[in-house]
Design a protein that fits this description.
- This protein is α/β, with parallel strands linked by helices.
- Helix content is 35%, strand content 16%.
- It is built from four helices and five strands; from the N terminus they run E-H-E-E-H-E-H-E-H.
- The chain has a five-stranded parallel β-sheet, with helices on one face.
- The longest helix has 18 residues.
- The radius of gyration is 15 Å and the shape is globular.
Length: 152
């Protein structure tokens, strides 16, 4: 599969990229700081971009099978519009480019506050409606340093 990963420089994003490459997928990491990606692989492309900019996302995500987002706030308790703005830009860009699969892996929505209620609303309503998704699953993420497990 061709995977478009947003938030690939964080701990979770790096793990997503690594596992996707190990499974033979073609991966594009869409990141704010390309120099933060030290992994080298012939199936990995690193693109510099702003995860809140719909047009940059649209231009970059053409012909992908799925978008994976591991975005989260750098400072958990500092107010930020990152999640809200990126969710809007991402879903709009996906709709325009025809990408129908979205995976979001972030613990950010589990923190209290209005910004996360907005993101939850967007995830529940806007993405379902605009992407015409047939189904959606959600599970709280937990990232630890143990070896990967395939049992869930």
């Amino acid at each position: 599969m061709k995977l478009f990963v947003i938030g690939a420089t964080g701990r979770t994003g790096r793990e997503i990229v690594q596992q996707a490459l190990e499974r033979g997928h073609q991966v594009t990491a869409f990141v704010r700081s390309p120099e933060s990606i030290t992994l080298k692989n012939e199936r990995l492309t690193v693109l510099n971009g702003n995860a809140m900019d719909e047009n940059q996302l649209f231009d970059a995500m053409q012909n992908y099978d799925a978008v994976l987002s591991a975005l989260g706030p750098r400072r958990v308790f500092k107010p930020s519009s990152l999640l809200h703005d990126s969710a809007l830009g991402n879903t709009r860009a996906m709709h325009r480019s025809g990408v129908k699969r979205l995976v979001i892996l972030s613990a950010a929505a589990h923190f209290p506050g209005i910004p996360n209620r907005i993101v939850s609303f967007i995830l529940r309503s806007h993405m379902r409606d605009s992407l015409d998704m047939g189904s959606c699953a959600s599970q709280r993420p937990r990232l630890d340093d143990r070896p990967a497990s395939t049992s869930h």
